[in-house]
Design goal:
This protein has 161 residues and is an all-alpha fold. Helix content is 80%, strand content 0%. The chain has six helices and no strands. Helix 3 (30-74) runs antiparallel to helix 4 (79-113), helix 3 packs parallel to helix 5 and helix 4 (79-113) packs antiparallel against helix 5. The longest helix is centred in the N-terminal third of the chain and has 45 residues, at 30-74. The protein is elongated and about 90 Å long.
Length: 161
């Protein structure tokens, strides 16, 4: 009874004093769960916004490179070689963005986790997965636009100017 009285000290008990400990723990963790739910929603929204940004950037990038692709095709380039070249250039930009973003993300994660009693060790793999996932998403968003630009007739593209 003494342990029980120490446990409920300062807590408001409504109704009966009989309750299950797991219900009490779930009630205590409710604000933390709500905060985590908000973080999950914002994470999902940021991924969707980033995907839309990648698609828009790849559309712009392919449109800007379409004249260069047409000129190279006139001089003997193939759809495959031009697509590879343009995708490689775009993926270099994504790699540079990851090189800039990873140290910032590591610093932010360390700042966030320093206030917790229990430390998480070995979470480096999350950043590797994030880089791989962003590479796959960037590749998928740019390949469609680049192949469309590479498959156009060079004469039609060069007449636009």
């Amino acid at each position: 009874m003494e342990t029980y009285e120490n446990y409920i000290k300062g807590k408001q008990i409504y109704g009966s004093l009989a309750f299950w400990i797991d219900e009490n723990i779930a009630e205590d963790w409710k604000p933390a769960r709500n905060n985590m739910r908000l973080v999950e929603i914002f994470m999902l929204l940021s991924i969707i916004i980033a995907l839309l940004g990648l698609v828009a950037m790849s559309t712009y990038y392919a449109d800007e490179k379409s004249r260069d692709i047409a000129v190279r095709k006139v001089f003997g380039g193939t759809v495959d070689s031009e697509a590879r070249r343009t995708i490689r250039d775009y993926m270099v930009l994504v790699g540079i963005a990851c090189v800039i973003g990873i140290p910032i993300a590591v610093y932010a994660a360390q700042e966030y986790l320093k206030d917790f009693i229990y430390r998480l060790e070995g979470y480096w793999w999350i950043f590797v997965v994030a880089v791989l996932l962003s590479g796959v998403i960037a590749f998928a968003s740019v390949i469609w636009q680049v192949l469309k630009a590479a498959r156009t007739n060079p004469a039609v593209e060069l007449k636009k100017e």
